[in-house]
Amino acid sequence: MNDDTRPDEAVLARLERTNELLQRMLAEVAKTPSTHAIFVDAGYLYAATGRLVAGTEDRRSFDLDAEGLIDALIDRARMIFADSRLLRVYWYDGARRRIHTAEQQSIAELPDVKVRLGNLNANNQQKGVDSLIRTDLESLARHRAISDAALIGGDEDLVSAVEAAQGYGARVHLWGIEAPEGRNQAEPLLWEVDSQRTFDLNFFKPYVTRRTLSVPEVSAGQRPTREDVRFVGAQIAARWLASRGRESLSELLPGHPYLPGSVDQDLLVEAEGLLQYSLRGQSDLRRSLRDGFWEHVQAQY
After folding, report:
1. For 145, how many CA atoms within 13 A lie in the half-sphere containing its CB?
2. How far apart, in Å, are the Cα atoms of 174 and each of 151, 155, 279?
3. CB neighbours of 103 closer than 8 A, spacing ≥ 6?
4. Whole-model pTM?
5. What is the pLDDT of residue 45?
6. Residue 246: is it exposed, middle or buried by C-beta count within 10 angstroms (0-12/13-18/19+)?
7. What are the Cα distances from residue 287, in Å, to 217, 227, 232, 248?
8. Exposed, middle or buried: residue 149 (CB in 10 Å: 0-12, 13-18, 19+)?
9. Beta 34-41 vs 62-64: how paired, if at all?
10. More confident residue, 287 or 11
């Protein structure tokens, strides 16, 4: 071999230097722990846990120990992702004009928890939450901030969020809540995720407490407002649902907006006892009572 065909020593030196840098980089990557985050659709969480533990999806009818439940979810993630560290818990909920409620504020103050709020419309339906989840999932995956995402939700609209995160190499694990009957997560969502896991009644029971039936404070003999009466109607429906079962109340649906005479009378008597106020001859208040009752029943079916 003559001098013309001999590799340039400077080129060889640069190649060796490049190989050395690559080896160092790979060694650092190998030492870097994986990172996971938990994404909670609070609307799904409240509805599914309320129905499973308290027999109702109405948030006003039960208390959720969010701090205790979040700690339990973090502990479970620590077991599942044993060689990974937690980035944080993202908690997505709805609020009117995106202003935190007292409960949401207390959750936001928890360590390692980030609350993100969508809007809440006149029918108490969340708007914009799915897009918030997608934005965070996609951004964190794109910047390699997470390697695994535990997603607690059930809406089919979350499919695009899952696909976006997976497109950047993150693995998405769907965590669900046991349904008393049927499913509470969309099948297309189940098909897209990398793994599925369902938590049962025993997992959630310590964190859900059914509220004792209470009514707005109304002085004896003082005429309650329509909203007061509507609230009482919803609470009575929640109690009836828990004690009489879904089957008995589902029989009422074909007759909406009318109630059978005996049921309407029972509703009236129970409401008057709670309000300590007679609703006889008060047609507007009786309509509000029925409206509150129907709103709760229809929300369960």
Report:
1. 13
2. 5, 11, 48
3. 66
4. 0.65
5. 95
6. middle
7. 20, 11, 12, 22
8. buried
9. unpaired
10. 287
Structure tokens at 205: 């029971």
φ, ψ at 38 (rounded to 5°): -115, 130
Token look-up 């404070």 returns: 217
Q: What 3-state DSSP class applies to 260?
A: coil
Identify the H or E element spanning 135. helix 129-142
Q: 253-278 burial, b for 16+ CB within 10 Å, e for fewer? A: eeeeeebeeebeeebbebbeebbebe
* Tokens, residue 246: 């879904």
pLDDT digits (tens, 9 = 90+) for 115-171: 999 876 656 666 778 899 999 999 999 999 999 999 999 999 999 999 999 999 999
CA distance 104 to 90: 12
With tokens 């799904």, the residue in question is 44
- Rounded to whole angstroms, the Cα distance separating 66 from 42 reads 10
Q: Please state, in angstroms and rounded to a whole number, the distance separating the CA atoms of residues 288 and 271.
A: 11
- Cross-strand partners of 92: 41, 116
CB distance 161 to 137 below 8 Å: yes
DSSP 8-class letter at 4: T
Residue 173: pLDDT band (50, 70, 90) is very high
* Secondary structure letter of residue 277 according to DSSP: S
Which H or E element spans position 239?
Answer: helix 226-244
Position 6 pLDDT exceeds 60:
no
- Alpha carbons 2 and 292: distance in angstroms, whole number: 96
Backbone angles phi, psi at 181, to 5 degrees: -155, 145
Amino acid at 95: A
